[in-house]
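Q: What would this chain look like folded?
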Amino acid sequence: VGGASRRSGLLSLCGDGHAVVTPCLECTSTDAALLGAPVEKLKAAILSEEAQQFMGERWPQAQRAINFASWAAKGDAGLPFVGPALYEDEFEPYVIVDRLLVPWFDEVLTGYGRNKALHTLHMF
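A: My prediction, written as C-alpha cells:
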C-alpha cells in the first residue's frame, strides 16, 4: 500500500465500518515491470489489456463486482482502490479493513472453495 502516509490515509477510510476494496490484477504479458508499478501504470496496463482481473478467465465471479475498466479510466491516480462495491455471490475481494470490525475468519473454512466468499458475505 505504499509508505506510512499512504497506509495512514487508507486506514482512515476504514472508519465507520467501511472496507477498502483493492484491485487484484495479473499480467497478460511477461512484462515484469508491472510488478510494484505505480497506480498510474497499472491503470494504463488495464486499459491497454496488458493486465486484467486476477483469475478473470478461470474464476470471473470472484472479482466480477469490481468494474476494473471504470476504475482504470478514473483520474484519481493516487488512489489504489476501487469502490463502492456491492456484494455478489462468490465475490472474493481483497480488502483493507479494521480487523476489530470484521467477524473472525471461521477456522472450519480451510482449503479451497467458498471460504473467502463466505467471509466477505459476513462483512457486507
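Residues 87 and 124 are 7 Å apart (CA to CA).
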